Amino acid sequence: MERSRIIKYCIRIYGDPVLKKRALLIEGINPEIRTLAQDMLETMYDAKGIGLAAQQIGKTLSICVIDIPVEADINEASERQNPEIEMPLVLIDPELFHLSKQTDSREEGCLSFPEIMGSVVRPSEIKIRYVDLKGQVRQFQACGLLARAIQHEVDHLNGILFIERMSQVKRVSLSGRLKRMRKKTAESIKTGSV
Predict the structure, then answer these.
(1) What's residue 3's pLDDT?
(2) What is residue 2's predicted lDDT score, i.e. its pLDDT?
(3) Cα–Cα distance for residue pair 140/128, rounded to 1 Å
């Protein structure tokens, strides 16, 4: 029998100023950070996402969570791309220290931009260094959807939104929807319903 989960956080939507704030480094791993990581995972799962950064729940801490399903971690030859990387990932103070020159363009979405998708060009392989929940510094190389998700979430931690990575033409085509979303978010903040 599955226990019922209590979702503590609402996902912040485009227009909320917290989404543009840079994350603060986490000084040490303590029970509050471990609880935050678990709450973030549950919030992400509830929203049917594969990644979530702290800003998306109104926090300005350098932590994000990612969980790529096995069936999504495959290449054109149906082979696993990152079989050695255990999911879910909790990345504390993540730092990208290598981005491949080779890029690819793929559709991305974001939990903070409901029903908005757009093509984003990103490096196809990355190397990342981060702190895990035990306080250990770790690093790995990733490619495919995992590399893309990590870059997307690290962008969030730096106050960069995925629409800023889209072409100018795409941003113009989305401008009406984004304006309405920003206005609705501003009204929600004003009335305290966020």
Answers:
(1) 46
(2) 47
(3) 6
Which of the following is catalytic: 27, 108, 153, 187? 153
Known catalytic membership, residue 42? no
CA atoms within 13 A on the CB side of 19: 21
pLDDT tens for 5-15 read 677 899 999 99
Identity of the amino acid at 153: E
Q: What is the mean pLDDT of residues 98-120?
A: 96
As a whole number of angstroms, the distance between CA 119 and CA 135 comes to: 35
E strand or H helix that includes residue 130:
strand 125-131
87-108: average pLDDT? 97
Name 127's bridge partners.
Answer: 98, 141
Domains with residue ranges and CATH for the chain: 17-191 (3.90.45.10)
pTM for this prediction: 0.93
159: its two tokens: 């106050």
Sequence-ordered list of residues with C-beta below 8 angstroms from that of 178, at least 6 positions apart, any chain: 14, 116, 163, 171
83: cis peptide before it, omega within 30°? no
pLDDT at 191: 83
SS3 assignment, position 27: coil
What is the helix, strand, coil percentage profile of the chain, to 5? 35, 25, 40
